[in-house]
Structures are given as C-alpha cells and as structure tokens.
Design a protein that fits this description.
This protein has about 280 residues and is of the alpha/beta class. Helices cover about 35% and strands about 20% of the residues. It folds into two domains: about 1-175, HUPs (Rossmann fold, 3-Layer(aba) Sandwich), CATH 3.40.50; about 185-280, Pantoate--beta-alanine Ligase, Chain: A,domain 2. It is built from eleven helices and nine strands. The longest helix is centred in the middle third of the chain and has 17 residues, at about 120-135. Bound molecules: adenosine monophosphate (AMP).
Length: about 280
C-alpha cells in the first residue's frame, strides 16, 4: 500500500494501474468506513481511500480543529483491508491557494435538512469531492463509494455526477451500526459514557416515526413535531426529524409510501451532533 500526499504523486501512483475505485473519507476510520472499503475493493483495479478533513464543509463554530485525526491507525486498517493507495493530502496540497472557485449544488436538494442547519456544507462537500474525483479519475471512468449514513450527501453527489456527466459510478453503501443500533460515526468518540448509552434514542425515534408514518390518515407534520418533542424531553436538541420521499427528499404529498420513504434526523446530545436515517 502506498501513502501519497500530493495530487501529482497520486496521479503517478495510479499510472497504468487501470480503473480506480475511490472511498472518500475524513479519516478516523471505523467499521462503517471499512465496510465501504470492502465494498469498493472489487469495483475497480486499484482502490484509493482518501483521508482529508475538509475545512470548506465546516462552519466556523463547528469541530474542524478538534475532529479526530488518526492517520497512522487509519493506514494500518486500510492495509489490512487491501487498500492500494491512501491519498492523505495536507490542506496546502489540496488547496495551494484559497479555494475561491467552488461547486454549488442544486438549492432544491441541498438547502434543506443538513444544508439548512449547516449553510455552505454541501458546497464544501461538492467542491472537495469534485477535486478528489479529478485527482483520482483525471477524466477517466471509475467508481466511488459513499455511505447511506449521509443520505442527502450521496444524493447531492449523485446529482452532481449526473449533471456534469462525470464518468463515475456512484455506489451507496448501507449504514453500519453498533449492535445497539447506533450508526457508527467518527463523532461518536465525542460522547461521554452516559451519552453513548443514550445515543441509540435517535435511531429509536426514527424507527417509531417511520412506523407511525405508515398509519392511514396520519398527520405527518404533527408526528414529526411530537417526535422532536419526545427527544427534547430526553435532553436532546434536535435540528430535524422528518419523513421524506426518497426520490427527491421532499415531504410526501399526504401519507408516506412504504418502500419509497426515508426518515431522517439530526440532533445534538451534549456537544455532539449526530445524524441518522432509516429507509422504509
Ligand atoms: P466521513 O469520514 O464521516 O466523511 O465519512 C466518509 C464516508 O463514510 C461517507 O460516505 C459516509 O457516508 C460513510 N460512512 C460514515 N459512517 C458510516 C456508517 N456508519 N455506515 C455507512 N457509511 C458510513
């Protein structure tokens, strides 16, 4: 396995290696990331995992500085999973000059939910992903794997790829959960022991919301408000808990449709903001 830091070294390492598959990450890898790596391995001739904590997708008050950076441990995991190239650029490598040219996603899809509570987040994501795509694929074809954990993100990326006609297949991997249901996340490491025990309540709330949303004649707006209130009563600060149609993340007209819906939630427990979702 090769560890490279610059786009030039990455391109040199990829020379003559065939069709790449890519797993973009911010590092501090856990089983959820490694499941993506396992899924990506057979999808190309050479597997690249990128590790880059992208300042552009953090708001000034968010956890950019404290985000866990564990490159050495990440590399051992990746080596054990058959990764061929780790691309771990520094900020200066990826953004040698201020990145004033950015990729702004469709506001219809990107300005709600995560984009509403984290303005500019998806512009930061699309800009870095476009740059990673050009660094890895250099205009040739390939595959990139994203997690359904960041449900809206993989939809935004899919739309970007489609609208810019990028020759890249986007594969969405299932959410990897701890045995108690908590979706794995690098940010789970911020939780205290008691918060960690409580953290499954977000997943539980989404399960209850998705079941209730299928009852005939139900008022979805009221259900969502009640679900948020129930989480607040347990000490959470929810940004949203909502039922959307999978096709465009808009609220369904009337009641939710089975197998076409997704319940999405984001909520803060103490200092930690967690997101999760459940397709149903
Ligand atoms: P991150 O390092 O948090 O930016 O995540 C990198 C990629 O891993 C994204 O495509 C995430 O959606 C995906 N990912 C993170 N956690 C999980 C999880 N628990 N299950 C599945 N995919 C995940």
């Amino acid at each position: 396995m090769q560890l490279v830091h610059t786009i030039a070294d990455l391109r040199a390492a990829l020379q003559g290696r065939g069709r790449p598959s890519l797993v973009p990450t911010m590092g501090n890898l856990h089983e959820g990331h490694l499941a993506l790596v396992r899924q990506a391995k057979p999808l190309g001739d050479v597997l690249v995992t990128s590790i880059f904590v992208n300042r552009l997708q953090f708001l000034p008050h968010e956890d950019f500085d404290s985000y866990p950076r564990t490159l050495q441990a990440d590399c051992s995991h990746l080596q054990a999973h058959g990764c061929d190239i780790v691309f771990a650029p520094s900020e200066r490598d990826l953004y040698p000059e201020p990145q004033t040219f950015t990729v702004t996603p469709d506001p219809q899809l990107a300005n709600m939910l995560e984009g509403h509570f984290r303005p500019g987040f998806f512009t930061g994501v699309c800009t870095v992903v476009m740059k990673l795509f050009w660094s890895v694929f250099a205009g040739s074809s390939g595959t990139a794997v994203f997690g359904r954990k960041d449900y809206q993100q993989q939809m935004v990326i899919r739309q970007m790829v489609r609208q810019f006609a990028l020759p890249i297949d986007i594969v969405a991997a299932d959410i990897h959960r701890a045995p108690d249901g908590l979706a794995l996340s690098s940010r789970n490491s911020y939780l205290s022991a008691s918060e960690r025990a409580q953290a499954t309540q977000l997943h539980d709330a989404l399960q209850r919301l998705s079941q209730a949303a299928l009852e005939p004649g139900v008022d979805l707006t009221r259900l969502e408000a009640e679900a948020m209130q129930a989480l607040r009563a347990k000490g959470w600060h929810p940004d949203y808990l909502t039922v959307r149609q999978r096709s465009d993340l808009q609220p369904p007209a009337g009641t939710a449709r089975a197998n076409q819906s997704v319940a999405l939630g984001a909520a803060r427990l103490g200092k930690t903001r967690l997101i999760d979702n459940l397709e149903f």
